[in-house]
């Protein structure tokens, strides 16, 4: 469940970011498309990295073994 | 292929493709030519073609003007030299200075140069006399001391002799004690003893003495005194250490020898008289002349400085004007002269959107130069490939330069810079991931950005110049680094449970097995990033390595897929369906049926927690695809799926290789169908398959060349699929190196210093930690990760779609770089 919720959060943040960029720097359709592409790419990159690290820890095959001096 | 009108498939995006360029021809009447070029230079949107390329520089129309400008530039350089020597700074150029005439400038420069040269020559002469007089004064003082000390010892001796009741008495004993012996022996042989005084450089003094001694067979007496402070040598103008010498000799021959030796050693001689009274008189005279000279020299220098100030006021203005004029004449030389029509013809590339502005500039120039005829602007059709022009701003120009450093985009092909703006800092951050270090870099780059205006006008060193130019890229890098640092949970290598408590805990209350079997997962997965418990555990590296390697593969496969999709957009834009069907699709199928499948397996393994060995699965998929999978089964019907994927991959290879050359050949023949009937003198061999395009002249079609090209492309892609995917493992390697270095600096320096409970050691430890962090992690690791992220983009991403064999649009403009000194 945590995965889906956080994915939705990423989606919402991405949408808000693109709206913000559209509002603050509205300079013609081709430039807007460029800004949108950049924001979407950044959102996807960040989401992918988070998702990979999250999924890798859901069903771990290795558990932490503390070192002696703990 | 400058003619192929592509586009229309997707809405246009800034920066994705080069601006549309057109070849324009301008016909300009002679009288408005200069103004036209000047206004077009202000506009900065036309790249002139050199229409006189076969002429030498001397044959061109405006060679004399360029020589004039060269002369003026030389004078300006001379002024700059003089000003920097006198430490006069030129006045800063204001934005809108009034326009000045070149002839006026030339005349003024000539006058000022003559005046300055004269002042300099006079100053040099005066300075030389001054130095000589200074040396003379020293000689007078020191040699005077010789004589007075000799006099004193003589009087002392005289008193001794007198007290012994010597026979000889007389005044001349006091005067010349050195001649006492001689006179007493033989007064008939009146040998006249002469002397010379002067200065000799200290390092040559010993050799000087020895040579004098040898040359005169020991018949001289020489005395030297050291002068404490260095003296300015009149001939060289530099300070040198010198000694005052006085040489006593007898005879004319000895005198001439000594004179020659003095000349050879550069020892300056000065006249000195024995008479005490005269000595005092000379000293006062010399002092008087020295003070006179000093005032004259000071006045001269003052005059020169005033002159340099007046030059400095107008210097930047003249400098700019001369450079502008030179550039204009160079450009005018590129235009071809249409003698019959008394006008100049210019050809150049310019963006389509600038047509109106160019026509405006032409209009204004025609009006301003009072010419009867206006200029003509027309667009030419050509098959030449236009230059590539991207309109960038201060954010995107740095990234575009990075992309261009590998190769400038072919006209209108997709620009990898669009995605590089985000993926480059992102991949950097994957290798750098530490939010503490990210914050440090963010602070550094915010300083550069906030002081942008001030730093832009200063002249920075080479390294600072590069860092300043890339400040927005570094800003993105630092922001992404903070993000990945939060995900890797490293703050100077210390993890923090920022978002929730750690998911792991002891198996039972006593925690007895924590160091042998380990903890277990009791709560929900840590919600954002890596669980903080991992740092410092024994099983940290196996877990992290597995995680980071798999992440690298996933990110790599995504980026490569993006690259192939860009090639699809290119194919659609250039309307080349053969590229879509027989390049894009087989490439997608090949890459994804092998490495896309691997990525899917990774995700399934993580989601199900299976213990399958993915190495084993992938390798045996090729070696023995029909074997049972047994333990390594991740999902039902896996064997069938693998067989299908293997089959698709194998089929896609000949699909990439074979059809395209044949289809291209058919297309070429279809295009030139009608034209092959025209030349009647063609032999029957012209119907042979491997006809070259020699008779047509425009396009050649060598089938064997195309086939070999396609073969190389296919092999490169197939082998590259494996090697490029493995290459992405550097994301894992560098992030491991970074976190290990960071961890070592923290534990072995800071914690070690803390453990001693001594303030002094703690301070040293903190200093070492700071220097090591800044030097190794913030500078070296940044450069290293920058370089590797760059390589991943240039090679692994761009070789999927980028050709990069275009040339950059270099418009004629008056924005000069600081070092242009031509």
From TrEMBL, chain A:
The keyword Metal-binding does not apply. Belongs to the V-ATPase e1/e2 subunit family. The chain crosses the membrane at residues 32-56. This is V-type proton ATPase subunit e1. Coiled coil: none annotated. It comes from the Eukaryota. It comes from Camelina sativa (False flax). It is found in: Membrane. It is a multi-pass membrane protein. Residues 1-17 form the signal peptide. Keywords: Hydrogen ion transport, Ion transport, Membrane, Signal, Transmembrane, Transmembrane helix, Transport.
UniProtKB/TrEMBL annotation, chain B:
Pfam families: V_ATPase_I. Keywords: Coiled coil, Hydrogen ion transport, Ion transport, Membrane, Transmembrane, Transmembrane helix, Transport. The chain crosses the membrane at residues 426-450, 471-488, 551-569, 581-604, 640-658, 759-780. Residues 102-136 form a coiled coil. It is found in: Membrane. It is a multi-pass membrane protein. InterPro entries: V-ATPase_116kDa_su, V-type_ATPase_116kDa_su_euka. Belongs to the V-ATPase 116 kDa subunit family. Essential component of the vacuolar proton pump (V-ATPase), a multimeric enzyme that catalyzes the translocation of protons across the membranes. Required for assembly and activity of the V-ATPase. This is V-type proton ATPase subunit a.
């Amino acid at each position: 469940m945590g995965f889906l919720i956080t994915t939705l959060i990423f989606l919402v943040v991405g949408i808000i970011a693109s709206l913000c960029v559209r509002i603050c720097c509205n300079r013609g359709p081709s430039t807007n498309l460029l800004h949108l592409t950049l924001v979407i790419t950044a959102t996807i990159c960040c989401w992918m990295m988070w998702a990979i690290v999250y999924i890798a820890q859901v069903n771990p095959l290795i558990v932490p073994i503390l070192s002696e001096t703990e | 292929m400058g003619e192929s009108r592509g586009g229309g498939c997707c809405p246009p995006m800034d920066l994705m493709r080069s601006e549309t360029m057109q070849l324009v021809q301008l016909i300009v009447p002679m009288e408005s030519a200069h103004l036209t070029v000047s206004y077009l230079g202000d506009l900065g949107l036309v790249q002139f073609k050199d229409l006189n390329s076969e002429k030498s520089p001397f044959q061109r129309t405006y060679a004399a003007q360029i020589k004039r400008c060269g002369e003026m530039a030389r004078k300006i350089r001379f002024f700059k030299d003089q000003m920097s020597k006198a430490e006069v700074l030129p006045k800063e150029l204001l934005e809108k200075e009034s326009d000045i005439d070149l002839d006026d400038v030339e005349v003024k420069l000539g006058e000022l140069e003559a005046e300055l040269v004269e002042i300099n020559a006079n100053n040099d002469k005066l300075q030389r006399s001054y130095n000589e007089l200074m040396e003379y004064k020293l000689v007078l003082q020191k040699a005077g001391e010789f004589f007075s000390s000799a006099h004193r010892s003589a009087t002392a001796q005289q008193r001794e002799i007198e007290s012994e009741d010597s026979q000889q008495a007389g005044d001349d004993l006091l005067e010349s004690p050195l001649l006492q012996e001689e006179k007493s022996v033989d007064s008939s042989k009146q040998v006249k003893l002469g002397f010379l005084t002067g200065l000799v450089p200290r390092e040559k003094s010993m050799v000087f003495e020895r040579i004098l001694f040898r040359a005169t067979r020991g018949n001289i007496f020489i005395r030297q005194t050291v002068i404490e402070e260095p003296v300015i040598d009149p001939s060289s103008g530099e300070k040198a250490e010198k000694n005052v010498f006085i040489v006593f000799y007898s005879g004319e021959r000895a005198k001439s020898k000594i004179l020659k030796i003095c000349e050879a050693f550069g020892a300056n001689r000065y006249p000195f008289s024995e008479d005490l009274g005269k000595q005092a008189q000379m000293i006062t005279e010399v002092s008087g002349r020295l003070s006179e000279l000093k005032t004259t020299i000071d006045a001269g220098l003052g005059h020169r400085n005033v002159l340099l100030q007046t030059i400095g006021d107008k210097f930047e203005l003249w400098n700019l004007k001369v450079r502008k004029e030179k550039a204009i004449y160079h450009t005018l030389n590129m235009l071809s002269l249409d003698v019959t029509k008394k006008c100049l013809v210019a050809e150049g590339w310019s963006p389509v959107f600038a047509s109106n502005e160019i026509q405006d500039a032409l209009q204004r120039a025609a009006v301003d130069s009072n010419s009867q005829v206006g200029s003509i602007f027309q667009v030419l059709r050509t098959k030449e490939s236009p230059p590539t022009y991207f309109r960038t701003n201060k954010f995107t120009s740095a990234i575009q330069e990075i992309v261009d450093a590998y190769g400038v985009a072919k006209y209108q092909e997709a620009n990898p810079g669009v995605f590089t703006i985000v993926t480059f800092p992102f991949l950097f951050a994957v290798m750098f991931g530490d939010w503490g270090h990210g914050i440090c870099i963010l602070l550094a780059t915010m300083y550069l950005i906030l002081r942008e205006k001030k730093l832009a006008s200063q002249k920075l060193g080479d390294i600072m110049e590069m860092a300043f130019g890339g400040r927005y890229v570094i800003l993105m890098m630092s922001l992404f680094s903070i993000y990945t640092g939060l995900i890797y949970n490293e703050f100077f290598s210390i993890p923090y449970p920022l978002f929730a408590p750690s998911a792991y805990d002891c198996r039972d209350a006593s925690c007895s097995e924590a160091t042998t079997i380990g903890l277990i997962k009791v709560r929900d997965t840590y919600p954002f990033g890596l669980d903080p418990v991992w740092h410092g555990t024994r099983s940290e590296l196996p877990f992290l390595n597995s995680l980071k390697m798999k992440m690298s593969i996933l990110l790599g496969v995504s980026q490569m897929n993006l690259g192939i999709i860009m090639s699809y957009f290119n194919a659609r834009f250039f309307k080349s369906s053969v590229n879509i069907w027989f390049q894009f699709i087989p490439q997608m199928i090949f890459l994804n049926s092998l490495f896309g499948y691997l990525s899917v397996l990774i995700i399934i393994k993580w989601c199900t927690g299976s213990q399958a060995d993915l190495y084993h699965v992938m390798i045996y998929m090729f070696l023995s695809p029909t074997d049972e999978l047994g333990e390594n089964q991740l999902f039902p019907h896996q064997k069938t799926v693998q067989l299908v994927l293997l089959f698709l991959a194998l089929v896609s290879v000949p699909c990439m290789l074979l059809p395209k050359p044949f289809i291209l050949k058919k297309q070429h023949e279809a295009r030139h169908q009608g034209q092959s009937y025209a030349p009647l003198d063609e032999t029957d061999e012209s119907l042979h398959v491997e006809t070259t395009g020699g008779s047509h002249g425009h396009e050649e079609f060598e089938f064997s060349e195309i086939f070999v090209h396609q073969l190389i492309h296919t092999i490169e892609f197939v082998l590259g699929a494996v090697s490029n995917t493995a290459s992405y493992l550097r994301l894992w390697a560098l992030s491991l190196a970074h976190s290990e270095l960071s961890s070592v600096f923290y534990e072995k320096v800071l914690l070690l210093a803390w453990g001693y409970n001594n303030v002094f050691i703690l301070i040293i430890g903190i200093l070492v930690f700071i220097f090591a962090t800044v030097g190794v992690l913030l500078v070296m690791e940044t450069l290293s990760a920058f370089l590797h992220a760059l390589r991943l983009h240039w090679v692994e991403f761009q070789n999927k779609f980028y050709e990069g064999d275009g040339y950059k649009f270099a418009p004629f403009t008056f924005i000069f770089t600081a070092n242009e000194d031509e």
